[in-house]
Amino acid sequence: MKTKTQEMKRTGTPLQFVEHIAHESMDSGLSDEFIHKIAPVCKQLSGYLDCTAIQSVLFSVMVNLNFSHRAVGIDRLANWFGCTPITVALHMNELEELRQRKILRKEISERNHDYETENTIAGIFYSVSREAFEALRIGERYRMKELPITNNYELVRAVGAQIQQRDEGQIDFPEMCREIHRILSDHPEVELVRELKQVSLSEKERILYINLCDEYYNGIQTSDLIIMVKLLTGDKREQMGIRENIARGASALVTSALVECCDSGFRSDKEISLTEKSIAILLRDDPGMVVEKTVARMPDVILSDTISEKRLYFTSDVQARYDEISNLLQPVNYDKLVARLRKNGMKTGFAMLFEGPPGTGKTESVYQLARMSGRNVLQVSISEMKSEWYGRSEKKMAALFDRYRKLAEKSSVVPILLFNECDSLLTTRKTNHETSIDNTENAIQAIILQSLEDLNGILIATTNLVENLDKAFDRRFMFKVHFGKPTIEARYHIWSEKIPALSGATALQLAETYELSGGQIDNIARKYTMHRVLKGNLPSRHQLDSWCLEETGSRRQQKIGF
């Protein structure tokens, strides 16, 4: 009578082999007797993976464990086999060989918090590659695929894939370097490889450069220097050395005019990008290639197509000004007006001031203007502008306007520069100069004043305290719009829109009783929704009144909460 193993050898599919091997291996201790017993099925599976018997065992268990665990460490394998972790560790070379052939992937333990207590000594985790599993699922032999490389684009993508694997912890730095060296050595005929041979770059400079090329193909024009250098080494001192070398122009990347480095504004110290020379080299073998530009690695840039549509309610005079500005910012109208102003020798920049109490829709108005005109928004973080180091804030401010200028030049539609809640930046300048802080703030304001004079784009500033605004700034804003508290009619519409469950009569009574801003009504609407979710019923009118009193500051010892 044939055993199940013998029958499996004759009729099984690859995944059935995997299932059988994994089942038989439970509590086997990875003993010699177990390996001998399972050898016939291992031989069948090995024919699909081109691996050894023990590798087929390790792979089969990994497949089973990966269905419930994203990655598997030595401890979990040892638990399955019913042996000590040392017994499994004796087969680490087998696991590494499977990884090198891309049958397994190496994972970073820090990214797998559900099993962070596992394998704390070695810190090595594996998962089965999707390509290997899919090959077995459809009953085909697994073959490691090599991407074809015949031009710059394919070369850069192949190298970029190695850098990504290093970033994700699948390979270590030496292995990444070996793979990149192999790719470059195997394709000497590619244009970019020939160019790099003429420049004396270090290994890390070469990797950084090709990664920049990969970023460029992805539409990223400039990259954060700190982030780029972190990919090269985990040593903080070495990172600082590489950054300093590039920043002061001593790196061969800079002296060979392959990359350029500049101040990035206020998110980081420096940005790095390809020079026109590099871009010409990169596109030389495919001059027809069009690289779509995108905004990336810039968390302070809000893309117009990510802004949700919101209806805003204004008084008639504010609505008229808002419509006027909206019409001006439409790309066709804006471009015509800029061309006419430039022809007449006039300034082409548009600076606007939106002022009024908190919650009246100033910031949201900017977002909606950006959405309707298809303009991205570069939003200034005031707190990050005020650096603790004397003199650094001025540099950040100057770099910000320079960055906006470059962003505007590279964009098909000029973006909006938003100074949100700019009270602390545009206040009356100090005349006594009593402290270094006074001097710094005056210096920042001088930079802003000059930049407003030279502005070639769109700047919108919002403030809650217009009375504190320095007169010199006031003169430089072409449009000044006062956002006051909404009228009863506007409040009625806001109540009805924010809380559709309200009756018309209740919405009108709330609008007439409480002089709230749109932002305050929005807060109440959120509390209303939370109450419905947590309590399972509609809030009472008494509860609504209580929330309204909270927003107005008239707390009359009423019970609050949900």
> Globular, elongated, flat, extended or rod-shaped: what is the shape?
extended
Helix content: 40-55%
**Number of E-state strands:** 12
Biggest sheet: strand arrangement? 7-9-10-11-8-12
Span from first to last CA?
Answer: 72 Å
Number of helices: 27
CATH topology of the largest domain: Rossmann fold
The chain-level mean pLDDT equals 82
| Name of the level-1 CATH class of the largest domain | Alpha Beta
Gyration radius, rounded: 32 Å
Number of domains: 4
Percent of residues in β-strands: 5-15%
Largest sheet: 6 strands, mixed
Question: What would you note in describing this structure?
Answer:
The protein is extended. α21 (392-410) packs parallel to α22. A hairpin with a 6-residue loop joins β5 (259-263) and β6 (270-274). The strands form 3 sheets. The chain has a 6-stranded mixed β-sheet with strand order 7-9-10-11-8-12. With 562 residues, it is α/β, with parallel strands linked by helices. Helix content is 53%, strand content 9%. The model is unreliable at 109-121, 294-299 and 555-562 (pLDDT under 50). It is built from 27 helices and 12 strands.
